[in-house]
Amino acid sequence: MESPSAPRRKTGRPLSFDRDVALEKAMLAFWQSGYETTSISDLTAAMGVTAPSIYAAFGDKKRLFLEALRRYAGDPADLEGAMNRAPTARDAVVRMIENAATLFTGDATPRGCLLASAAATGSKDAADVREAAANERRVIRSIIVNRIERDIAQGLLPQTTRCEVLADLALAVTQGMSVLARDGADRDALLAVARASMSVWPDPVG
Fold first, then answer.
1. Residue 10 belongs to a domain
2. pLDDT band of 10, cuts 50, 70, 90
3. pTM metric for this prediction
4. Is residue 126 within 8 Å of 66, Cβ to Cβ?
5. 104 in helix, strand or coil?
6. Domain encompassing residue 43
7. Do 64 and 79 belong together in one domain?
8. Cβ contacts of residue 191 below 8 Å, gap of 6+?
9. What is the CATH classification number for the domain harbouring 148?
10. Which helix (H) or strand (E) holds 73?
């Protein structure tokens, strides 16, 4: 219990907007234009709130972006679960890349990948933005590697399979498709790239 002399806590004013909806709109704005070129005025217009409201609810622009990035990336457990439910590691990876191709060419969302635009952030004061995007990719890479290792352990893939190389290839193809989507490539073109990239996978054992 607080003592009678303890200062009373300030409860603060309740938000006058739906924070979750505002975060979704901020994510789309960053997705469209990237971190550095999206200004606070761009965000207020996209989110439909004032600058003081953004600072009160999210902190500064960088913290808002990092939260939007986490929203975009989603829960790693969801990706891991989807990969573990796939019959094989190859099926899991091709579905991931094909889903990316679909996402990058959606009608209701910006083209390309928010993680890729974060990686292109160049200023020194945004190093933690680049690191956050890199960390998301590292998490995805680890999940892919673990799924491939499971197939090796079960005798579905040769013991000589290079898990890390295949995981890096999947990430490189995914990020490359983001650039193609930004350049105007359509979904069929990206899906063709996704499927062609799987031709380097080793044949299953047996």
1. no
2. very low
3. 0.87
4. no
5. helix
6. 19-70
7. no
8. 98, 101, 102
9. 1.10.357.10
10. helix 61-73
Nearby residues of 22 by Cβ (< 8 Å), 6 or more positions away: 47, 48, 49, 57
Is 119 found in the same domain as 28?
A: no
- Residue 11 vs residue 43, higher pLDDT: 43
Please check the confidence at residue 189 and state whether its pLDDT lies above 70.
Answer: yes
Instruction: Output b/e per residue, 8-38; b: 16+ Cβ within 10 A.
Output: eeeeeeeeeeeeeebbebbbbbbbbebbbeb
Task: Calculate what percentage of the chain has a pLDDT beyond 90.
Answer: 81
- Residue 126, in any domain of the structure: yes
Q: What is the mean pLDDT of residues 169-198?
A: 96
* 137 and 159 in a common domain: yes
Q: How far apart are CA 102 and CA 192, in angstroms?
A: 12
The distance in angstroms from the start CA to the end CA of the chain is 68
pLDDT tens digits for range 68-113:
999 999 999 999 999 999 999 999 999 999 999 999 999 999 999 9
Query: What is the tens place of the pLDDT at every residue in 116-145?
Result: 888 776 677 788 899 999 999 999 999 999
Q: Are residues 84 and 182 in the same domain?
A: yes
Asked which of 70, 91, 106 is the last residue of a domain, the reply is 70
Same domain, 55 and 107: no
Residue 8 pLDDT greater than 80, yes or no: no
Two tokens, residue 21: 């909806």
Choose the final residue of a domain: 70, 86, 105.
70
The amino acid at residue 135 is: N
86 and 179 share a domain?
A: yes
110 and 97 assigned to the same domain:
yes
